[in-house]
Write a structure and sequence with these properties.
Elements: H1 5-21, E1 25-31, E2 36-41, E3 46-49, E4 69-70, E5 76-79, E6 84-87, H2 88-92, H3 99-115
Antiparallel strand pairs: 1-2, 2-3, 4-5, 5-6
């Protein structure tokens, strides 16, 4: 299935709506002291999460996390040393990975809690 010019225009319009609705990332870094990825949004809110809790970052070393790129729209984060990407609106919903990955993670946590 080929992508048409109309498909591109629709996708661009949707992205513009998301950017206008906000919030968007304006800064991101790895805080070594807290062991957290910290994302500052244009609203002033900061979002922080442990790399071990995010798909693609689970086994990252601190030096793998020292470069975080923010997309021009502010809707995406890219970790070039790990080739890992995150969608800011999904992070705000607490989604740190694919649905399948999150479900498997919840199952493992449930198994651990039941064993205790």
């Amino acid at each position: 299935m080929a992508i048409t010019d109309d498909d591109v225009r629709r996708a661009e319009a949707e992205m513009d709506e998301l950017v206008q609705a906000g919030p968007v990332a304006i800064e991101a870094h790895y805080d070594r002291g807290r062991g957290r990825i910290v994302v500052r949004l244009d609203t002033g809110l900061e979002l922080a999460f442990a790399p071990r809790d995010a798909q693609g970052l689970e086994r990252a070393r601190a030096m793998d996390l020292d470069t975080i790129e923010i997309s021009a729209s502010g809707l995406g984060l890219h970790f070039p040393k790990l080739d890992a990407d995150f969608y800011v609106p999904a992070l705000l919903e607490g989604r740190l990975g694919s649905r399948q990955w999150m479900a498997a993670r919840r199952s493992r946590k449930g198994s651990k809690a039941a064993a205790e």
